[in-house]
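Researcher: For the record, we're logging two predictions in this thread. I'll number them. Prediction 1 follows.
Model: Prediction 1, sequence and structure:
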Amino acid sequence: MPKKPDWEIKDFSGGLNDKVDDNLIANNETPDCQNVIANKIGSLTKVLGSAKLNTVALGGVVQGLHSYYYGTNRKLIAVSAGKLYYWDPMDKSFKEIALPAESYPTGLDASAPVYFETLVNYVVGFNGINPPFKWDGTTVSVLANAPADGQFPCLFKEKLFTVPKSDPSTIVWSNSFAPETWEAVNYWDIKKGDGDIITNLVPYLGELTIFKRYSTHTLRGTYIDDFRYDEINPNVGCVGPRACVQDGMYLYFVADDGIYCYNGGNMENLTLTKIPNLWSKINSEYIGNAVAGRWEGFLWFALPKDSSSFNNFVLLYDPLTRAWWPRTGLNISCLAEYNTGKETKLYSGSSYTASPYVSEQWIGSNDLGTKITSYWKGKAFDMGNPAIKKKAKKMLVADGNNTNDATPSISLDYGTFQDLTYLDGDNLVRRFDCPNTWWRYFQPKLTHDVIDKSFEVRGLTLQYKAKSKAK
């Protein structure tokens, strides 16, 4: 038979695809990977890590994070164990912000998430249990006249909107430019009595998108006299207050059956087309705690996976290539982008009680000092004809210049992965010997499990021969 060319992979940017059989996926896709990323064509690397911001542990799970800027001052605010803090970059520690004892005798509820919104002169915080508060960078006080059990505040058309916990199918709002004036007529029932509850309020395309758990609605207009309500989708909603993020002209949000993209008219389930099997492992019982964010060109979705009751897993999504990249080792309860005055950073709060820290994301090669274990599996290669037996000769791995090396291994006919025998090479290309065995299917794997190190692979080449007849 004619000589077959060497088998090569020079592009890894397709990301995870577990919907299609692993010998039918695109050459640049992977049926299984962890903690790797391909943010440019021709390069596979380990994801960047995370590092503790505070070395002294907070009291528990981080209930909320917010970036607050007023005048020339800037503060990163955090809530943990019912206490309110701001980050002091000089002392490199969180300093407690004293809550008025007469209104918060035992502090904030220690288990309820706290949601923030920045107004003109101060930041406000709502948790659905304690009276909403405001902080002007110096003093904390009760936000007068606001619903005592308001949740997830949202500024829209210069009005402060919220949803009372006791009336979760109703939105209420303050007067324009007057967040402490709440008139009785300022409310709108959102399909009340349907057995569903409002989960998120998001200003989008000049409208207020109102998510319920299982449906989506919108409020158009500026004042109560010209507000107009419409139901956008009666079957798809957002699971929680932190589970939606805007990127450009699109909203991306977590629903019970997947992650959706919304353009103001249509909704598309992005997980259904590429990663339905992975999505089936998300713990639907606790998915309401999901967190969505955006950083370095990727959308971040922190989720509870398998039997976890807290977010222990992250899905990274590249909206340009539509590629998914699973990320393990992160426990995220909330996210906040914070401008230090010199640069903008992404911070996360821990969702895990044993790790009560705020962490900077996308930095270094470890997760809070722990190594990041990465791997990538390639397409199962059969030369387009599994009836013909093949035998591998050599595997060539093209590396980024002067990088720590990923370990290549192969699986023959879906057997156990075997590490390859290193022959020779340099900083750019390494050559490995392959098992002297005939096979029908060949699958490569790259693994990296080294602390304080990353890797970069720019291509794989398999030199092989095939029998002249099918057997």
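Researcher: Logged. Prediction 2.
Model: Prediction 2, sequence and structure:
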Amino acid sequence: MDPISFLGCGSWGGALGDVLARKGVPVIFWHRNPNTIDQIQKSRKHYLIEDLEFSKNVDFTNDIKYAINSSSIVVLAIPSQSIRKLLIENNSIFNNKKIIVTVSKGIEVDSLMTMSEVINDVYGKGYKKTVVLSGPSHAEEVVKKFPTTLVASSIDISSSKTIQHLFSNEYLRTYLNTDVRGVEIGGALKNVMAIAAGICDGINYGDNSKAALMTRGMAEIIRLGKKMGAKGKTFQGLSGFGDLIVTCLSKYSRNRKVGQAI
């Protein structure tokens, strides 16, 4: 089969690429820093996750045109605030036949758009094959093959089913959801609550405080999400309470660590 291209090789992108490689799927990783590419090619080890060693069917490049042109499925695994610039710079390479998968959780600062909205804003609303892949997942545990669940969401059910099948194995299960707006809002706004949860840890508040924060915080997320056109039911699932729980409680959560440092 054609390789799956990842634009970005951070911890989460690296872990997802490893999932595919273990299934025998060829993977191409693009990274903007040629020194990082050289380092990984020589060591075959990820530069952020020491337990992650790449197999032979994983290739690395700093030629973004090669990465995009080599695959019919392109995974955006770069920081959310960098996605628009990357899409604009490579506007001539993408086409409506490619499935674009975004695994970046966030809201663009200047426009307040979610990542799928940024894609539509750059390429037009006719670009239907955008899939949001989200859920309660830390790369460090996926690499260790701990049971993990994700949700694939798209307005194009065929594309989301393709991604569901691709990112599923004996320790990773991907579900479907058609509420793209709800999945993205849940994945972005839980970060705010996770920072607050970290503040609770930093000032030595206990479990009572954090439980209250998470529960009432989700009530706020649901109210805001519904105002923004999402379905309330979505926040009861993996990209809502599931993602909130893991981000507020996990030792791997960067947002929680930020709050604790504050």
